[in-house]
Amino acid sequence: MLNDQFGILNDMLLRVGLISQNIAFTARPETAMWAVLVVDIWKTTPFMALLCLAGLQMIPRDMYEAAKLDGIHPVRVFFKVTLPLVRPALMVAVIFRLLDALRIFDLIYVLTPNSSATKTMSIISRENMIEFNNFAYGSAQSSLLFAIIAIFVSLYIWLGKVDLSGSAGK
Known about the structure:
Distance between the termini: 51 Å
Radius of gyration: 22 Å
Largest sheet: none
Structural class: mainly alpha
Strand content: under 5%
Low-confidence stretches: none
Helix content: over 70%
Shape: flat
Order of helices and strands: HHHHHHH
Number of helices: 7
């Protein structure tokens, strides 16, 4: 889709008149990261949607029937019933997405190999270990990435629990 000669994206943008010539999205430094972001979002959106759908299907229908009988406005039902009950599934979805985003390697390596515009910590770690034969730096960077991910996830879970317990007492 992103190929500069045969990609459908260039063809559509040319037909609409938004661009005058084909663009090599993954080869140009100013568009490479945007291309990777679009492909990554495209790749993970169905999984995130399934996680959200699973959370929505876990909500008992009795809650909605009771809210309807009580005459509660649908917007208020969403914020007071749906959102708190689907929150654990949303938290799992955000954690999975965060893990994927922080340790992304394969997508960048395939789309934009050796591009300085799309280097992530995983790419730099692999580069140190394989290309520069510097296993100490590569291992340290991988361990640091693991620590950063662990801190983010722990903090997110802790903040989610604090906020859940804080709203339960009201």
